[in-house]
C-alpha cells in the first residue's frame, strides 16, 4: 500500500537561499502527523511542493502513490490543503466559495457535504454572507472548508489555527480529529506546540531545509526525558555546576534526570547556605524537545511561547530569609514537587 | 472519481459571476464610454470626414469601430484583471490547487473574457442603433460575428498573458496603455486607413488590430480597406499563435507556480 505522502530527496532553492536540502519523508495512511520547525525552516515550501504550487529542483513527491508532477490530476484530487495565508475571493459568499471550489474538482451537486462542512465549522449562519464581511477566524474556517470540499483522503493544514479564538479552535480540532478517525490522513504544521503534542502521533522537525528529527511523539519526548529546574539564586552549589544548562543573569537552568534528584539539589543548597529567590520545575514537553533539537535551550521562548512555569510547571518562591527549609508551592494547594512525585500538566 | 476536464466549466462560471457581480463597472460603464465617443466624434467629424468614397456616413462608419474596440478592450480587461487580482489577493491558490489542466485554465479564462467583450459589444451596438438603425441590415452578419469572436479571443488571450506576466497592477496598466491602447487607436477605429499618408498606411498593415476592425466592419457594409479573407487569415493565425504561446506559458507554470 503506498504511503499517504512520500517525499524523496526533495531539494529546492530560491536564488541563493536553500529552502529544502534533501528532504525524505513518508506519512502513512491514517496518521495525524506533525510538521514542525521555526520560521524559514522549509515547511511551507515542502507543502507547496506536495500541492503542486512549487516545483522541486530535485526529488519526487507522491500522494498515495501518485506523482505530484507527472500524475498531478490524481495527486491533487487526493490532497486538501489549508494554506497559511488568510486569502479569499471578495466577489463571493461563503457558500458560493465552497460550491465553486467543489466545482473546480469537477464535483457538482455537493450541497449535502457543503452543508455538513458549514455546520461543523460553525458557519451555517454566515453561509450567505460575502467573504469580505466575515471575521478573520471565519475566513480561516472557510479556508478549511475549501480544503475539505472534495473529501480528500490526505489533508494538509498549514498553521490552520493562527488567529482563531480558543473556542473555535477547539471545535475545529474536534472536526479534524473526527476526520482523522474516519480514516483521513492529517498533516499539521503549527506554531502552537501544545496542539501538536495533543494531536499528532508522529512528528517531523525541519531545520534550515533538513529533517532533523522524525519519530513518534513518545519517542521524541523520551529522548529528552527529564526535568528542568529554573533557579534564581546567587550561585549554584559547586557539585551542581556541571548540570547547569545555561544562565540568564541570576537565573540558572539545571537539568535533572528524575524528581529524586531535586532533594539532593535542595540539600546541597541548604548545606552551602544558598538562598533561593525563586525555583520552578518543568517536565520535558514538546516545546523543550523542539528547542533542544533546534539548538536553543529549554528556557527560551520562541514566538512568545509561555515561560516554563506558565506552561505547566510549579513555581516556588522565597518565603523568608531561611526559605531553604520553607518552600511553598506558588499555587498554595499543590504539594512540594519532590513529595508529590510529579508536576500537574 | 470525476473525469478529467470536469473543472473548467466552474472556472468559467466563476469568471462570469465575477464580472456580472460588478456589471455597473464592467458592462454599463464601457457602453456609456462608447456612446460618448460616438456622440462627440460623429458630431465633430461627420461633415469633415469622408469614408469609403462617401458611400457610408461617418457616424455609421464609426459604430462598428466603437463596437469592436469595446469588445477588444473589455476582453483584455477581463482576463488580465481577474488574474492579477487573484495573484495580488493570493486567492489564485484556489485555482492552482485543484486538478485543472493548463488547457482548462486557458479555455475558462479566455471564454470568460470573450463573453464579457461580446456582451459589452452587444450593449454598445444596441445603444448606437438609436443613432444608426440601418446598421441592423448588415450584409454579412456572420463575418462580423466571426471577427468579433476571434478578436475577443485574441484580446482575452493577451489579457491572460499580461495577467501571467504581471506581478503588480501597474504592470497591467502599462501593458494596456502602451500596447493595447495604441494598437487599438491606430487600427482604424475612427478612420479609414486610406485617409492616412502612405507610410502610416503601411504601418497600419502590420497592426493585427487593423484586420480585426476592418474585417468586422466588412460585415456591416460589405466594404473594407483590406480583403476580408486576408483579414480572417491574419486574425485566425494570430489567435492560434497566441493560444499556443499562452498554453506553453501555463504548462511551464511561469509566474504562477513558483
Topology of this structure?
The complex is a heterodimer of chains A (345) and B (258).
Chain A: E1 5-14, E2 17-27, E3 32-36, H1 43-51, E4 58-63, E5 66-67, H2 72-77, E6 79-82, H3 94-104, H4 111-120, H5 136-148, E7 154-158, H6 166-181, E8 185-189, H7 193-199, E9 202-207, E10 210-216, H8 217-223, E11 227-233, E12 244-248, E13 251-256, H9 260-271, E14 276-283, H10 286-293, E15 314-317, H11 337-340
Parallel strand pairs in A: 3-8, 3-9, 6-7, 7-8
Antiparallel strand pairs in A: 1-2, 1-4, 4-5, 9-10, 11-13, 11-14, 12-13, 14-15
Chain B: H1 8-20, H2 23-45, H3 58-89, H4 93-96, H5 102-128, H6 141-165, H7 169-185, H8 198-204, H9 208-221, H10 228-252
CATH topology of the largest domain in chain A: Rossmann fold
Number of helix segments of chain A? 11
Oligomer class: heterodimer
**Strand elements of chain A, count:** 15
Backbone structural class of chain A = alpha/beta
- What integer is the average pLDDT of chain A? 84
The greatest inter-chain interface is formed by: A-B, 34 and 32 residues
Structural category of chain B: mainly alpha
Can you tell me about this structure?
The complex is a heterodimer of chains A (345) and B (258). With 345 residues, chain A is α/β, with parallel strands linked by helices. Chain A has 2 domains: 5-222, P-loop containing nucleotide triphosphate hydrolases (Rossmann fold, 3-Layer(aba) Sandwich); 225-340, no CATH class. Chain A has 11 helices and 15 strands. Chain A has helices at 43-51, 72-77, 94-104, 111-120, 136-148, 166-181, 193-199, 217-223, 260-271, 286-293, 337-340; strands spanning 5-14, 17-27, 32-36, 58-63, 66-67, 79-82, 154-158, 185-189, 202-207, 210-216, 227-233, 244-248, 251-256, 276-283, 314-317. In chain A, the strands form 3 sheets. Chain A has a 6-stranded mixed beta sheet with strand order 6-7-8-3-9-10, with helices on both faces. A 5-stranded antiparallel beta sheet of chain A has the order 12-13-11-14-15, with helices on one face. Chain A is elongated. The model of chain B has no long low-confidence stretch (mean pLDDT 94). In chain B, helix 2 crosses helix 5, helix 3 runs parallel beside helix 6 (141-165) and helix 9 (208-221) packs across helix 10 (228-252). Chain B is mostly helical and 258 residues long. Chain B has one domain. The longest helix of chain B is centred in the first third of the chain and has 32 residues, at 58-89. Chain B has helices spanning 8-20, 23-45, 58-89, 93-96, 102-128, 141-165, 169-185, 198-204, 208-221, 228-252. Chain B is built from 10 helices and no strands. The interface between A and B is medium-sized, with 34 and 32 residues.
Amino acid at each position: 500500500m503506498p504511503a499517504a505522502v512520500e517525499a524523496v530527496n526533495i531539494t529546492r532553492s530560491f536564488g541563493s537561499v536553500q529552502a529544502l536540502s534533501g528532504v525524505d519523508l513518508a506519512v502513512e495512511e491514517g496518521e495525524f502527523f506533525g510538521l514542525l520547525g521555526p520560521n524559514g525552516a522549509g515547511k511551507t515550501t515542502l507543502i507547496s511542493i506536495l500541492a503542486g504550487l512549487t516545483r522541486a529542483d530535485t526529488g519526487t513527491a507522491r500522494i498515495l502513490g501518485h506523482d505530484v508532477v507527472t500524475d498531478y490530476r490524481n495527486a491533487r484530487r487526493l490532497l486538501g490543503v489549508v494554506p497559511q495565508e488568510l486569502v479569499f475571493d471578495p466577489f463571493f459568499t461563503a457558500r458560493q466559495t465552497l460550491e465553486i471550489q467543489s466545482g473546480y474538482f469537477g464535483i457538482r451537486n455537493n450541497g449535502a457535504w457543503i452543508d455538513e462542512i458549514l455546520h461543523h465549522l460553525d458557519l451555517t449562519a454566515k453561509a450567505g454572507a460575502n467573504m469580505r464581511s466575515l471575521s478573520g477566524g471565519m475566513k480561516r474556517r472557510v479556508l478549511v472548508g475549501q480544503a475539505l470540499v472534495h473529501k480528500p483522503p490526505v489533508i494538509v493544514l498549514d498553521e490552520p489555527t493562527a488567529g482563531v479564538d480558543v473556542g473555535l479552535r477547539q471545535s475545529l480540532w474536534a472536526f479534524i480529529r473526527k476526520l482523522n478517525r474516519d480514516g483521513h490522513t492529517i498533516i499539521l504544521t503549527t506554531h502552537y506546540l501544545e496542539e501538536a503534542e495533543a494531536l499528532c502521533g508522529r512528528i517531523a522537525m525541519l531545520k534550515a531545509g533538513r529533517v532533523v528529527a522524525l519519530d513518534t511523539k513518545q519517542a521524541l519526548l523520551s529522548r529528552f526525558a527529564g526535568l528542568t529546574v529554573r533557579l534564581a539564586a546567587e550561585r549554584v552549589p559547586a557539585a551542581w555546576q556541571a548540570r547547569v544548562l545555561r544562565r540568564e543573569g541570576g537565573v540558572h537552568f539545571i537539568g535533572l534526570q528524575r524528581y529524586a534528584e531535586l532533594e539532593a539539589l535542595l540539600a546541597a543548597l541548604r548545606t552551602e547556605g544558598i538562598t533561593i529567590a525563586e525555583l520552578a520545575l518543568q517536565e520535558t514537553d514538546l516545546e523543550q524537545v523542539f528547542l533542544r533539537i533546534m539548538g536553543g535551550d529549554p528556557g527560551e521562548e520562541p514566538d512568545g511561547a509561555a515561560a516554563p512555569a506558565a506552561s505547566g510547571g510549579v513555581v516556588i518562591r522565597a518565603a523568608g530569609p531561611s526559605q531553604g527549609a520553607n518552600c511553598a508551592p506558588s499555587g498554595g494547594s499543590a504539594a512540594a514537587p519532590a513529595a508529590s512525585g510529579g508536576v500537574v500538566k | 472519481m470525476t473525469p478529467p476536464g470536469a473543472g473548467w466549466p466552474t472556472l468559467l462560471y466563476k469568471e462570469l459571476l465575477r464580472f456580472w457581480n460588478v456589471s455597473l463597472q464592467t458592462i454599463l460603464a464601457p457602453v456609456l464610454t462608447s456612446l460618448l465617443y460616438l456622440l462627440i466624434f460623429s458630431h465633430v467629424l461627420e461633415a469633415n470626414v469622408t469614408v469609403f468614397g462617401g458611400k457610408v456616413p461617418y457616424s455609421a462608419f464609426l459604430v462598428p469601430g466603437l463596437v469592436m474596440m469595446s469588445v477588444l478592450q473589455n476582453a483584455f480587461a477581463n482576463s488580465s484583471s481577474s488574474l492579477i487580482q487573484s495573484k495580488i489577493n493570493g486567492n489564485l491558490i484556489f485555482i492552482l490547487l485543484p486538478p485543472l489542466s493548463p488547457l482548462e485554465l486557458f479555455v475558462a479564462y479566455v471564454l470568460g473574457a470573450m463573453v464579457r467583450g461580446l456582451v459589452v459589444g452587444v450593449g454598445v451596438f444596441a445603444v448606437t442603433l438609436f443613432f444608426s438603425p440601418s446598421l441592423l441590415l448588415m450584409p454579412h452578419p456572420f463575418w462580423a460575428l466571426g471577427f468579433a469572436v476571434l478578436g475577443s479571443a485574441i484580446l482575452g488571450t493577451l489579457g491572460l498573458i499580461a495577467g501571467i506576466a504581471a506581478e503588480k497592477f501597474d504592470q497591467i496598466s502599462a501593458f494596456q496603455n502602451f500596447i493595447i491602447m495604441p494598437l487599438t487607436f491606430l487600427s482604424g477605429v475612427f478612420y479609414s486607413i486610406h485617409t492616412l499618408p502612405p507610410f502610416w498606411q503601411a504601418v497600419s498593415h502590420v497592426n493585427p488590430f487593423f484586420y480585426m476592425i476592418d474585417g468586422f466592419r466588412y460585415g456591416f457594409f460589405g466594404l473594407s480597406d483590406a480583403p476580408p479573407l486576408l483579414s480572417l487569415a491574419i486574425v485566425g493565425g494570430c489567435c492560434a499563435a497566441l493560444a499556443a504561446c499562452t498554453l506553453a506559458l501555463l504548462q511551464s507554470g511561469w509566474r504562477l507556480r513558483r
